[in-house]
From TrEMBL:
This protein's name: Unannotated protein
Feature: compositional bias, Low complexity: 12-30
Domain Tryptophan synthase beta chain-like PALP: 105-409
Family: Belongs to the threonine synthase family.
Signal peptide residue numbers: none
CC cofactor: pyridoxal 5'-phosphate
Matches recorded under Gene3D superfamilies: 3.40.50.1100
Region feature (Disordered): 1-30
Any one GO biological process: isoleucine biosynthetic process
Molecular function via GO: L-serine ammonia-lyase activity; threonine deaminase activity
Record's keyword terms, sorted: Lyase, Pyridoxal phosphate
Lineage: unclassified sequences, metagenomes, ecological metagenomes
InterPro entries named among the record's database cross-references: Ser/Thr_Dehydratase, Thr_synthase-like, TrpB-like_PALP, TrpB-like_PALP_sf
Residue ranges, compositional bias (Polar residues): 1-11
Length: 451
């Protein structure tokens, strides 16, 4: 494929798989879409012009961005900014030129977690990709930044979303920064930390009496309504672009490891998009010759109270049967995950596994990561750490192999999860003697515990 959008006059690729119809370009041909050239159906391969579309007109399969990559080199990436925009040559929006205000997320730290590895009996190197360092403290800033750029290209003036919490923060903040309108729709039972921080950014925030799947359904109906003509729902009609933002997690892991892949990755699953896009990122780097083609396994993590993908994995099924979520890991509480079947494919193809953990284990996971590495994760991070432990215990994950786990959010947003299990050591008057007493009591109990 020789077509690229370096030249605005270029035409979209006519060689779609199976000779399926190529819709004439509308937004396609705009240099603003970078190397993206089309939307392609993940099921039947039909191609469409770039636009605010997410379902195939032929088979209703989900659409994905197709590219004609040009000039992708390590040098070009390394010369880019310390944000997701260093990977513009691999994203469906043009290089960020500095004239479009956004939150510049990404390039978060990859933390070597020796203490956690030791606590879990791992001899291989363990890393935490810590996305709590993003502007609104979750990995969702990545997907929103890409969707927001696509919304601009498509002339959509309001950005909207159906959210389990972190997306709400990310959309409201990104809109505020860019001077756009936002409409954020959430289930009414979300954590106060997520609701209030979203509200602080302004914009319209609608709490729906129902769960995330009800919220998602409402937003899908709104997409067809004339009322929302100039709205881009980042995870509905802009979903193909949004999803590509998650690839940057995978790119960063490979680049930060010194342009190579880890042997194992553990990712939390809500809709399943993040997990599938980390794999896509790895495969793109390999096929573009940026890294060596070394074997890796992708593992998925869910909370038992919302574990439809883990259940399908265990049952050996390709279809994911929807569940009604009931877990403290609300950011992962999607009972009918759109990318569940694709997550199953990735995990099975790479030889990984999917496990789920109870809410009590989630809390233990949060504490373990905080106490060993000084990283305070939200419930989703607790799910991932607890799942790592479970995968080691079951033998599915090799404790001697190099492993990266994803911490996707910040514990300050989910304080309720730990408010009953941690607290002050003692409440005292401002008196040195009381401090001495408490330290002595601590030393004594530590000694008796150790004897
Ligand atoms: C949204 C989210 C995920 C997973 O998202 P996918 O829908 O599977 O892409 C993971 N962790 C946190 C904290 C999230 O907010």
């Amino acid at each position: 494929m020789s077509t690229s959008y370096v030249t605005p006059s270029s035409t979209p690729d006519a060689g779609a798989p199976g000779g399926d119809p190529v819709v004439p370009p509308s937004a396609a041909g705009s240099p603003g879409f970078g190397p993206a050239s089309r939307l392609t159906c993940r099921e039947c391969g039909s191609s469409y012009a770039l636009g605010a579309a997410y379902a195939c007109e032929e088979c209703f399969g989900p659409l994905e961005v197709g590219y004609d990559f040009v000039d992708v080199t390590r040098e070009r990436i390394e010369a880019g900014p310390p944000s997701i925009w260093r990977y513009s040559c691999l994203l469906p929006v043009a290089a960020y030129a500095g004239d479009e205000p956004n939150l510049n997320p990404g390039f978060t730290r990859l933390v070597r977690a020796d203490n956690l590895a030791r606590a879990l009996g791992m001899t291989g190197t363990l890393w935490v990709k810590d996305d709590s360092g993003n502007p609104t403290h979750s990995f969702k800033d990545r997907v929103v930044a890409v969707a927001q750029s696509a919304a601009r290209r498509l002339g959509l003036s309001t950005i909207a979303c159906a959210s389990t919490g972190n997306l709400a923060n990310a959309v409201a903040a990104a809109a505020a920064r860019a001077g756009q309108h936002s409409v954020v729709v959430i289930p009414s039972d979300l954590e106060a930390g997520k609701v209030l921080s979203t509200a602080a950014y302004g914009g319209i925030l609608l709490a729906v009496d129902g769960n995330y799947d009800d919220v998602n359904r409402l937003c899908s109906e709104l997409v067809g309504d004339p009322l929302t003509e100039d709205w881009g729902f980042v995870n509905v009609n802009l979903r193909p672009y949004y999803a590509e933002g998650s690839k940057t997690v995978g790119y960063e892991i490979a680049e930060q490891l010194g342009w190579r892949l880890p042997q194992q990755v553990v990712a939390p699953i809500a809709s399943g998009s993040l997990l599938t896009k980390v794999d896509k990122a790895f495969r793109e780097f390999i096929s573009l010759g940026l890294i060596e083609d070394t074997a890796y396994k992708v593992f998925g993590a869910q909370a038992t109270g919302c574990s439809p993908v883990a259940q399908a994995f265990r049952a050996g099924q390709d279809v994911v049967r929807p569940v009604r979520p009931d877990t403290i890991a609300k950011s992962l509480a999607i009972g009918n995950p759109a990318d569940g079947p694709y997550a199953l494919d990735v995990v099975r193809r790479t030889g990984g596994s999917i496990e789920d953990v109870t809410d009590a284990e989630v809390v233990e996971g949060i504490r373990l990561l905080a106490e060993t590495e000084g990283i305070f994760a939200e419930t989703a991070g607790g799910v991932t750490v607890a799942t790592l432990r479970k995968l080691i215990a079951s033998g599915a994950l090799d404790p001697a192999a190099e492993t990266v786990i994803l911490n996707t959010g910040d514990g300050l947003k989910t304080l309720d999860a730990i408010s009953n299990v941690v607290g002050v050591t003692a409440t005292i008057p401002p008196d040195v003697d009381r401090v001495t007493e408490i330290l002595a009591a601590r030393a004594a109990s530590a000694a008796s515990a150790g004897s």
